Protein: 3-hydroxybutyryl-CoA dehydrogenase
Organism: Virgibacillus sediminis
Amino acid sequence: MAIHKVMVIGAGQMGAGIAQVCAQSGYEVVLNDLSEEALDKGLKGIERQLARSVEKERMTEKEKTEVLGRLNTSRQRSDAESCDLIIEAVVENMEVKTKVFADLDEIAPEHAILASNTSSLPITEIAAATKRPDQVIGMHFMNPVPVMKLVEIIRGLQTSDETFKAIEDMTVQLSKTPVEVQDFPGFVSNRILMPMINEAIYAVYEGIASPEDIDTVMKLGTNHPMGPLTLADFIGLDTCLYIMEVLHDGFGDSKYRPCPLLRKYVKAGWLGRKSGRGFYQYE
Ligand code: NAI
């Protein structure tokens, strides 16, 4: 199945990055959001990134103009009717996502693939909101999208081999490495990463070492580029808690119990970098 035109729904952190890499790889892209402000902010962010690439001589001014020429914004979901692939990157909320997928199922052409960038919600359940569950798949990009090389491709229970192959090929086209993952809570990345972060928070909670020292151990002792608590602040502590709850509920196993200190910080509004305070303080 040939993919020429892509719609990305949600122009936030992830959606804008996905739209950028698709346009840079030669696809026609429509970036869609309900909010004009989000579209403006998303597009400005992309322009800034491309301008930086030109400055660093990774791209010519002409290439930048061509990339921006392939990228359009829209607030009309009906524009999905001319797209071969729709990648959803709206808020991490099942009700919102299933509503978007049910709508898209009505609008998108019969051959179109509907993908979700969800970081934790079951693809099988999202697919069940459509009449084409065989053409629904997870395409889990990492943040920041233009930099990170991995895409987890999640097969829902009914995802067809043809759909999987089309998305795998496209991922390679985007200069990313695809990894095939079955649809279970946390997929692979968050199944392994989040319990590690949660354990680091338990180490703070139990007074084993300071956040700085825990991060130093993991950086210098295990060669991680960033300590788990710095990373948790970067991801957002609310997001970390949410994903731990998905693992805990999904497997019903106490080993995924979110650390009480994580809950406490989230309740206090200490959400990490975005709120100015998490395990560290930010300007
Ligand atoms: P964000 O909050 O930055 O962006 C979400 C955007 O979706 C907003 O601009 C909002 O206006 C828009 N939106 C909400 N409902 C909409 C609708 N019905 N139709 C059109 N637009 C709508 O969120 P972010 O961080 O970009 O996350 C998006 C998705 O990507 C979530 O599912 C998240 O779990 C996933 N994800 C996030 C990662 C991260 O590090 N932030 C990493 C990997 C996946």
Observations:
- Residues 42 and 246 are 28 Å apart (CA to CA).
